Amino acid sequence: MVVSEGLLKWIMRLYPPLLFQRIWVVKFNSGYRGVQVRIRKSFLNNNYNNTIFGGTLFSAADPFYPLLFHQIFSRKGYKLMVWSKSATIRYAKPAATNLSFSINLTDNDIAHAEHVLNTEGKFIRSFPIDIYNKDGEICVSLMNEIYVRNLNFIDTTI
Fold it and tell me: 155 lies in a domain?
């Protein structure tokens, strides 16, 4: 489903798994070239050590690369299946304050993905996400492996 950046921002803000973990989409960039996300520290996502629960941090990062790729290529007329295939997460320091992160896709990222979708039918690549505290320090680093399949691809090498 193709939707505007503003509408998807509000859908994601009100989506219960994100809303109740205090994950807030600040903005989708024009053309879905990126997203800015904030994670508010709250009693709803505090762990035993009075820091943000690790599952909240992972949940904040998980959906956004697939959403960006899906919206970009759906707007180009592709029929796709997109998801996060795998992820690794490294906790660098306790998440004791509000956090934020930004994701940005370059023209090269998109052109490469489109080339692979048109020649191989599926695109798999890992993308980094660093999540920062209010002092600009990295609390969490993730590598999110994205899987994008072009459902209209016909393999002519068979």
Answer: no
For residue 41, count other CB atoms closer than 10 A to its CB: 19
Query: Which residue in the block uniquely carries the two structure tokens 């393999």?
Result: 155
Q: Which domain holds residue 62?
A: 5-150
Mean per-residue pLDDT, 110-134: 97
Q: How many CA atoms lie within 13 A of 149 on its CB side?
A: 7
* pLDDT tens per residue across span 77-110: 999 999 999 999 999 999 999 999 999 999 999 9
Tokens of 127: 């993308």
Residue 94 to residue 70: CA distance in whole angstroms: 32
Would residue 158 count as lying in a domain? Answer: no
- Domain total of the chain: 1
What integer best gives the mean pLDDT of the chain? 95
Residue 138's domain is classified under what CATH number? 3.10.129.10
Query: Which amino acid appears at position 126 of this protein?
Result: S
